[in-house]
């Protein structure tokens, strides 16, 4: 059994790495336990809203992130059935955040950047260390870990659980994960075709049950290190095996932009979509953040950016406990602020985003596009719209919770 005066974090995904870097920048030593042999290598969550960009700037993350990511200054709402499209310019966000752009970077590049930045910090990575359980003890936790099939344990003062939706940390503490799973699922297709001329870098394409999400995904520093991701709905009665056939995948891509040539497909997968929040984000010496604490559908980037917001709230409060001797009851405020915000703001708005894409009433869809055209044309309306869309409003809401 090891016993070190370090903060332990389970999970080397974006939220775990942000939390680690923020703590290290303040002089707090960190050890990260990661079940895999390296940091995350998949291409999942990609889009960082302006408030998150401002936060990442505070810990010196942006320059490294932009080596393989892009600044995105606009995005689109399209209604395919109505043949209408509106481009929203982020320039007005500079009023509040000092810059008018979001950043796109695939998760594998984000975690690579975080890993590189942490090499110069007092951060220890323990790869191939799978957390299998956590036991609360006096003034600390015993973390059960499996290493190459061998079981051991680590004594730590604190464990910050950033280990994803199926979090062993959360499960070990018998923390409920209330909410629901949608009956429909999402199909994600990654292709090399360049959709930017027709759809920009991000297009929310409403069309009832045939909606599509079109996203450019940069994943590295090379000029060809990018993909386009097409996300669409899979009905509860649809056969996954049929949908993943080459012919079916080509049909989905052709529905976005007809082409005489078949599309080059890198990969395709179907996944379940959840709306869930942990019953508590803090239990004794265990604190949860990111997907370990909450899940929601990905339309609008609410889950990823909410995880960033979790990390920075936790960095501030945990630093006060570790460095300044603050009462650890301040971590209960972290729980109240972040959990209530997720239940009452993030969950609601993320569902609204999904429902907007799925709307079948043409009159409502036409009215929605009318409103978006007004937003695009008026700076003040656009600033108010983007403050909510980019989750700045959720941060203000959280700050008001005692």
Automatic annotation (TrEMBL):
FAD-binding domain sequence ranges: 6-348
Protein name, as recorded: FAD-binding domain-containing protein
Organism the protein comes from: Sphingopyxis fribergensis
Keyword Flavoprotein carried by entry: yes
Matching InterPro entries: FAD-bd (IPR002938), FAD/NAD-bd_sf (IPR036188), RIFMO-like (IPR050641)
Signal peptide: none
Pfam family, one: FAD_binding_3
Cofactor: FAD
Keyword hit for DNA-binding: no
Keyword field: FAD, Flavoprotein
A GO molecular-function annotation: oxidoreductase activity, acting on paired donors, with incorporation or reduction of molecular oxygen, NAD(P)H as one donor, and incorporation of one atom of oxygen
PANTHER family: BINDING MONOOXYGENASE, PUTATIVE (JCVI)-RELATED (PTHR43004:SF19), TRK SYSTEM POTASSIUM UPTAKE PROTEIN (PTHR43004)
């Amino acid at each position: 059994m090891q016993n070190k005066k370090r903060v332990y974090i389970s999970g080397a995904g974006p939220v775990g790495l942000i939390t680690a870097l923020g703590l290290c920048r303040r002089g707090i030593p960190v050890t990260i336990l990661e079940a895999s042999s390296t940091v995350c290598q998949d291409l999942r969550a990609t889009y960082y809203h302006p408030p998150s960009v401002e936060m990442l700037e505070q810990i010196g993350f942006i320059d490294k992130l932009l080596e393989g990511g892009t600044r995105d200054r606009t995005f689109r709402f399209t209604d395919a059935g109505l043949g209408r499209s509106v481009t929203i310019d982020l320039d007005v966000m500079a009023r509040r955040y000092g810059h008018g752009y979001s950043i796109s970077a695939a998760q594998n590049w984000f975690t690579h950047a975080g890993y590189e930045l942490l090499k110069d910090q007092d951060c220890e990575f323990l790869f191939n260390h799978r957390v299998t359980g956590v036991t609360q003890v006096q003034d600390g936790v015993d973390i059960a870990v499996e290493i190459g099939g061998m079981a051991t344990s680590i004594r730590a003062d604190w464990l910050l659980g950033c280990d994803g939706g199926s979090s062993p940390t959360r499960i070990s503490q018998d923390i409920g994960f209330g909410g629901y799973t949608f009956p429909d699922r999402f199909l994600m297709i990654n292709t090399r075709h360049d959709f930017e001329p027709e759809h920009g870098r991000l297009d929310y394409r409403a069309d009832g049950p045939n909606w599509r999400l079109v996203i450019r995904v940069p994943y590295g520093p090379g000029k060809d290190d990018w993909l386009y991701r097409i996300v669409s709905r899979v009905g509860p009665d649809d056969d996954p095996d049929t949908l993943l056939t080459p012919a079916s995948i080509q049909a989905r891509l052709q529905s976005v932009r007809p082409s005489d040539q078949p599309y080059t497909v890198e990969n395709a997968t179907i996944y379940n979509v959840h709306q869930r929040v942990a019953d508590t984000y803090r239990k004794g010496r265990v604190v949860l953040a990111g997907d370990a604490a909450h899940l929601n559908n990905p339309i609008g980037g609410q889950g990823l950016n909410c995880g960033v917001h979790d990390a920075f709230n936790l960095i501030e409060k945990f630093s006060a406990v570790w460095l300044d001797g603050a009462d650890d009851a301040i971590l209960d405020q972290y729980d109240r602020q972040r959990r209530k915000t997720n239940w009452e703001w993030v969950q609601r708005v993320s569902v609204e985003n999904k429902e907007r894409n799925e709307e079948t009433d043409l009159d409502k869809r036409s009215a929605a596009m009318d409103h978006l055209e007004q937003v695009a044309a008026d700076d003040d309306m656009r600033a108010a719209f983007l403050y909510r869309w980019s989750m700045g409003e959720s941060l203000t809401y959280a700050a008001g919770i005692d």
